[in-house]
Amino acid sequence: MIFYFSGTGNSRWAARRLAELTGDTAIDLARLDKAPDCSGETRIGLVFPVYAWGLPEPVETFARTLPRTGAFTFAVATCGSEAGHALKKLDRLFPLRSSYSLVMPNNYILGADLDDEATARAKIDAAEKELAVIAREVAAAQPVCRVREGSLAALKSSVVHYGFNRFARSTKAFYATNACTGCGRCAKDCPAGTIRLENGRPVWGDKCYQCLRCLHSCPVQAIQYGKGTETKGRYTIEQYRPL
């Protein structure tokens, strides 16, 4: 059983690809309304994106609900380049036999812009090859730690990640331009359930994971965050791989 959390689809694609290669099942943990019964599982995996060198809130919350188990446990953290100590934090909550980081296209456009298309394609092609290796190792229950933590990992995963959770997850800067058609996709897809439509326009509540799914998946690119995203591209894995 492979549980995943995903914003723009990188981790969803990775989880589903792993499930396909290992004959397992991929489950969106954001859609679960209660803790899963894992008592009969021989393998339990988690696939998730790294947020500011740490765990996304839903992943941390979910990991706390998982029981200690005799199953082979593993995790794959998707990231633009570095995972920091995200997997070490997860291991403290849910002990892991194997840990991996998986480099995927950058999508956090509140900082840098997207990778160019050639870089994005190269990262996805390399990730697909790496997933095949991971699948073989997981199927063989082989303990592995192949994680690119990066420099100053402890500092980034503590101080920077704390700052991200404390200050960067505000919804106040989200807005929809006049290009908005009122399709409601943002409200339907928001994993935090914080978006609602009022008079055909999206309105954000207070809770936000900063997954940026609403911003990237808007079919008319109407959703913005402050002024910095207006000139930046949008990314979903479906542009490169079908889901």
Overview of this structure, please?
With 243 residues, the chain is an alpha/beta fold. A hairpin with a 2-residue loop joins strand 8 and strand 9 (201-204). The strands form 3 sheets. It has a 6-stranded parallel β-sheet, with helices on one face. The protein has a two-stranded antiparallel ribbon with strand order 7-10. It has a two-stranded antiparallel sheet with strand order 8-9. The longest helix has 23 residues, at 117-139. It has 7 helices and 10 strands. It has helices spanning 10-22, 57-65, 86-93, 117-139, 153-168, 185-189, 213-217; strands at 2-4, 26-28, 43-49, 72-79, 98-103, 145-146, 174-176, 195-198, 201-204, 223-225. 33% of the residues lie in helices and 18% in strands. It has 2 domains: 2-164, Rossmann fold, CATH 3.40.50.360; 170-239, 2-Layer Sandwich (Alpha-Beta Plaits). Helix 1 packs parallel to helix 4 (117-139).
Q: What would you call the structural class?
A: alpha/beta
Distance between the termini: 18 Å
**Shape descriptor:** globular
Q: Provide the β-strand percentage band.
A: 15-25%
* Radius of gyration, whole Å: 18 Å
Domain 4Fe-4S ferredoxin-type: 171-200, 206-228
Protein name: Ferredoxin
GO molecular function: 4 iron, 4 sulfur cluster binding; metal ion binding
Pfam families: Fer4_9
Question: How are the SSEs placed, and which strands pair?
Answer:
Layout: E1 2-4, H1 10-22, E2 26-28, E3 43-49, H2 57-65, E4 72-79, H3 86-93, E5 98-103, H4 117-139, E6 145-146, H5 153-168, E7 174-176, H6 185-189, E8 195-198, E9 201-204, H7 213-217, E10 223-225
Helix pairs in contact: 1-4
